[in-house]
Each structure stands twice: as C-alpha cells, then as structure tokens.
Write a structure and sequence with these properties.
The chain has 282 residues and is α/β, with parallel strands linked by helices. It is built from 14 helices and 7 strands. The chain has a 5-stranded parallel beta sheet with strand order 4-3-5-6-7, with helices on both faces. Strands 1-2 form a two-stranded antiparallel ribbon.
Amino acid sequence: MIENIIKSMINSFSYSERMIGMYIVENKNEIGEITSTQLAKKIGVSQSSVIKFIKKIGFSGYVVFKLQLERDLENKKKLDGNKIHSDICLEDSLEDVTKKTLAETIEALKNTLDIMDYENFEEVISKIRGSGRILIIGAGMSSIVARDLELKLMKIKMDTVHYDSKQMQLMKLSTMNEKDLVIAISHRGETQEVIDVIKAARDMDICVVSITSVGKNTVSSLSDYNLGVVSKESIFRSSAISSRMAQMIILDSIFLRLVQKDYKKVKQYIDKSKKIVGWVEK
C-alpha cells in the first residue's frame, strides 16, 4: 500500500520528498526498528521533513505510518514465498523472467533520474573535466562498473585508472595530489575497502565523487559529491541487476556530457582510438 502510494505521487514530490520516498521504498524492512529522527539522519534530511512527508502521503503520524508499513511487509511475505529475485517467481517462464527483468531495470532507471539533482551532476562533470589524474575505486560487482567508466574516460584521453585491490588503489593514491580526483562506486555505500581509500584521499585533500544507493551512507557522507542510484534489493544481491544498470546510465551520461563539452577535441581521440584498436584487431 505505502509503496504504491509513494510511486503514484512521485511526480508531485519535491526533491527532498523524492529522496525520503525512495529511501522508504528501498529500505522498508529497517524502518520498523527506527525512530523518525533516526530515519531522517539516515536519509540526510530534517525530522520535520520526514513528518511532513508522512502526512503528505495520508498518515496522521509516524506511528500510524509504521503500523501500516508492518502490515504491508507481512502481506508481502505471504506473496513472496516463491520469489527468487524481486518480482521473479520459481514457476515463471523464460519470457516472464525476461519481461520482469526489463521492467525492473526500467523502473530503476526512471527512479534514479527522478531523484537526480542535475545542478550537482553538472558540478561533478566540471570536476571530472578539470581534474588531473582520476582514480576509480570499487569492489566486487562495483568493480565491473568502475572498469567500464575507466575505459570510457580512457577513450577520450583522460588520465584514468581502476585497480581491483585496495593495496593497488592506495599505491596509486600515494602518487596523486589535490588537483586529482577519486571516483568511488559502491551500491550500499558501506564497503570497507572503498571507505578506507576515500579516507586516505580526504587526508590528502583529494576531491571524492561517489556513486551509491540513494540516502545517507558512509561513502556518500565522506564524499564531496554524491550521485544517488535507486534500485531494488534481493537475496541475490551479488547479481546487482537493476543497481548496475542504474549506475551504468549515470556513467553513460557522464561520458556523453564530457564528449558534448569538448566535442571537436574528443572526436579526434575517439577516431584515433577506433583506428588503432581496429588495426590491432585485424
């Protein structure tokens, strides 16, 4: 019920209301155990903003809201007994699995763009353009996304590198200075290896841009700039299906915006890259 209410009203919400709404949708299981003050702190908004939001979606107060949320979760458990990922059930056909996966991906992309702060995003683009060297960090599935961004930026002749191990990331970081940039990718925003590297970067006065799930988390809190992603979680978090796709649209947008900003120069780099890579592949 609450999830449907929030999704039906999403276009009428302010930016902060969207942040609150999407955090509730993505973290329903934890809200029953925390106060409105704790919820506000996790999202990064004031308690009054949370209470105003609760009333806007039709509840008289936080306690009534939590009771309804608990009922929603109980009903969901009864329906989810045979689900293996999000809305995908054990008895689904391959066609069903494919269509549901597509629908989940589209929803993650739409929700991510709905809560995007484009002024903040443009500042991130400016930081990337003006940086010297760029270190991209990420662990596990986020490392795959980090590698994709590394290749994109290399293609337009940006001094970029991504290493899988924390040790290599720290070694690279030791050669960098305040003119450089660290881009951290972590879905939950609580990966310890990523946090350790960010803390080291901050000690060196190096700017940090992060891409994490929406809401307050350790990685976003430590970063100078954060781009939030909205996606569903499941017992198969390792597959990271919708979150990875939502992260990828942010990376593609970064790449294309950088191409826009320096098109003539960048086109030469891309053409040269195609020519050399094509020659090697032959």
